[in-house]
Amino acid sequence: MALGRANLSTRQRALLDQWLPGANAEKDHSWGLVQTTVLEMTYAGSRFIVKAGGDDDHHVERELRAHLSWLSPWTSLGRAPLLEYGDSKAKLLVTRYLPGELVLGSEHADVPATYREAGELLALLHAQTRIVDADYEERENEKSFACLSGPHRIATSTVERLRAEITSWPTPEALLVPTHGDWQPRNWLIHNNIVSIIDFGRASMRPAYTDLTRLSAQDFRRDPKLERAFLDGYGVDPRQTPAWHRSRVREAIGTATWAYRVGDEAFEAQGHRMIAEVLGPS
């Protein structure tokens, strides 16, 4: 069977044959740690990206929602891929190929101008709409409790500290905006020194500061100049709230437990470091 198509369901293959009949799969961009298959395909002289989710996948549905509801500030500028076809029940979508190389691992990953541009783009996403959610904090706490109850390698004493801290938190109303959910250089492309955005499988309505959790734990920590440039582009610092600490704790728990489940030991180690940093000395 053609490259990558063996991982697609019968329904997904049928839809793909309907949408892009006779298309050729040129490259498999699948990450390997999750159930999503990502194929670069050519059809009628154009290039496309095909994403197909497995049985337990929720990323494709979220990505489709993002394309339909939130990406126009970027697609109107050519800074995000255009949706061509999508079927949420089949967990399949097709977008136009967006040229560029990943910022992660490139020389642009250490250039402040890249982060300034990423900040400007994120501000466009966040500015579109906002809602007040009275239950957000409680839902997020429950997710953290569920992670701590599942499989992981967090020490028992640390789990007890985490549970005690989360239990002590207030649960105020939260202001939610459209967020990317995985805002970091591995989801930024650069082409002719212009930054564009890909991968919307974690897009959802959340507080704006949540899109800074991964940058803060990784790139900002590596070089403060990148943080200053990003905030200059974004315009304000959305982390100036007590809720930021709560978000950091949740992100640390989620990182350590998710990475353990999928077998990503390096990312798991980062999660344990994040936990140690947010808890401080015992």
UniProtKB/TrEMBL annotation:
Sequence ranges assigned to domain Aminoglycoside phosphotransferase in this UniProt record: 61-244
Pfam families: APH (PF01636)
Transmembrane segments: none
Coiled-coil zones: none
Protein name (database record): Aminoglycoside phosphotransferase domain-containing protein
Organism (species): Micromonospora luteifusca
Top-level taxonomy: Bacteria, Bacillati, Actinomycetota, Actinomycetes, Micromonosporales
